[in-house]
Specification:
- It is built from ten helices and two strands; from the N terminus they run H-H-H-H-H-H-H-H-E-H-H-E.
- The chain is mostly helical and 314 residues long.
- It has one domain.
- It has a two-stranded antiparallel ribbon with strand order 1-2.
- Pfam families: PAP2.
């Protein structure tokens, strides 16, 4: 008598994979959201945090004409008009690809991230603990705008283009974030908080997309994964060492570490956070509808014409 295999293990495995598929973006959204108030408490509500943040911001000393020109043009190019254009691009591209869900998700993350940033910036108090007397700038509006624009473009593009565009977006957002600190518009914590706000809204948008439409995931392309891992690891090590030195200096001998060293350490930390954020986003965006899976990949499906089937009869 033939014993039929029970389908329960396969069904359970699919259900487990589906749960992870939904919980992953939701978990990232929650963690990124919690990172914002935690960073606010450390960098804004504590004396040492404000001192280190302000030292890094005022430590930039760039006099090279070309560098200054690039930074100024990049900052001036990030405006409300660019946000509107990206939303229109996402809508048109989503309609062309017949992926209205991606277009709506891109609009949600752009609008939600930028509104949240502006709301926090205007409502959060900043006690004057470092004697600078400056108003609150937490989080950075420019960094949020740049990151949300990059996230939206990556989301609506086909999978084959996302890796290259993710690397370009990472470079663009990093330049914007560092430039706002160099221009003394924002402190490093402002830019990191902006990245967390954007990641939270992006992950939430992906969660809603996956909730409404069955999706299959795949690993992020090596084109984006390996460079971001390498850059993130190097800059994270440099940033941690540099900022630890600045903190120790502020506690023991405030004039021991130069402002330029502090700025470079802060820039490395910003770059590391941006690399990690774009690595997560590339992974979240690397998904496609289950209905678009190639027929040749389905179990029992006939092989494409002209290809020999291994193990078949001659």
């Amino acid at each position: 008598m033939t014993v039929l295999a029970s389908p329960q293990p396969a069904t359970a495995a699919r259900a487990s994979g589906s749960s992870r598929h939904l919980l992953a973006p939701l978990g990232i959204a929650v963690l990124a959201t919690l990172a914002v108030p935690a960073l606010y408490q450390v960098a804004v509500r504590s004396t040492l945090g404000q001192q280190v943040d302000t030292l890094v911001m005022r430590g930039a000393d760039v006099h090279h004409a070309r560098v200054v020109g690039v930074l100024e043009r990049t900052l001036n190019g990030t405006s409300l008009a660019s946000l509107v254009l990206v939303c229109l691009f996402a809508a048109v591209f989503g309609v062309v690809r017949r992926r209205l869900d991606l277009a709506l998700g891109a609009a949600v993350l752009v609008i939600g991230a930028n509104l949240t940033t502006q709301l926090l910036k205007t409502q959060l108090p900043r006690p004057d603990l470092d004697g600078s007397g400056m108003a609150n700038s937490f989080p950075s509006g420019h960094t949020t705008a740049a990151a949300s624009v990059a996230f939206a473009v990556i989301l609506v593009l086909p999978q084959a283009l996302r890796g290259t565009v993710a690397l370009a977006g990472f470079a663009y957002v990093t330049i914007i974030a560092v430039a706002t600190v160099w221009a003394e518009w924002h402190r490093p914590s402002d830019t990191v908080a902006a990245l967390m706000v954007t990641l939270a809204w992006g992950a939430f948008a992906v969660f809603v997309i996956r909730l409404l439409k069955p999706m299959d995931t795949q690993p992020a392309s090596r084109v984006v994964r390996l460079p971001l891992l390498a850059v993130g690891a190097v800059t994270a090590a440099a940033g941690l060492f540099g900022l630890a030195s600045v903190v120790l200096s502020e506690r023991a001998m405030p004039d021991l570490v130069s402002g330029r060293f502090a700025f470079l350490a802060g820039s490395a930390a910003i770059t590391a956070v941006a690399a990690g954020v774009f690595l997560l986003w590339a992974r979240l965006a690397a998904a496609y509808p289950a209905s678009e899976v190639s027929v040749s990949k389905k179990p029992g499906a006939p092989a494409p014409a002209g290809r020999r089937v291994k193990g078949g009869t001659k």
